[in-house]
Design a protein that fits this description.
By secondary structure, the chain is an alpha+beta fold. The chain is 24% helix and 27% strand. The protein is built from four helices and seven strands.
């Protein structure tokens, strides 16, 4: 049985699955955000869409799922500026399972582009930001390699350049 995530009614959360996987980027956009846990949102497929950014698409059969980083973004009533910066929406009925020792469920803000649901190719600058987020999520949060491979279908791993002397 899932435990209860330490959630108070006045707290608001954001589920990041794109370049906001990078805590550094997220803190630059929303300085008051606090990274909480690696989270999993079942029933969605992770893609880069025709807008050339990360998106999640609801799967009709509810299979699959998407990993991301869960952030506390303040109080439910006081996060309008953060919500605008995140370009997010609150989709009722969407929960993220966040777990450290025992999985728990919370309701969170998540950005879903419901108009652009077909796969695309990412912008070059976005590839760099995504790689930073992927690397950080693996290192800090333990993002599973199996999900990294899902992302690698769209986001090629950058090769580090070595400086010759």
């Amino acid at each position: 049985m899932a435990g209860v995530f330490p959630l108070q009614s006045d707290e608001a959360y954001y589920f990041a699955y794109g370049s906001n996987l990078s805590t550094e980027q997220m803190l630059a956009r929303c300085p008051n955000s606090v990274p909480v846990a690696l989270a999993y949102l079942p029933g969605y497929e992770w893609i880069i869409n025709k807008r050339r950014y990360a998106n999640i698409v609801l799967r009709p059969d509810q299979s699959g799922g998407c990993y991301g980083v869960l952030y506390k973004i303040g109080t439910a009533g006081g996060t309008e500026s953060d919500k605008k910066r995140l370009d997010g929406e609150k989709d009722t009925g969407i929960s993220t399972s966040a777990g450290d020792e025992e999985p728990s469920t919370v309701e969170a803000w998540v950005y879903i582009d419901k108009k652009r649901v077909l796969p695309g190719v990412p912008w070059d600058e976005y590839v760099h930001r995504m790689n930073k987020g992927i690397d950080e999520a693996v290192r800090v949060w333990g993002l599973p390699e199996s999900f990294v491979q899902v992302m690698r279908e769209y986001v090629p791993q950058e090769v580090e350049k070595t400086v010759e002397s």
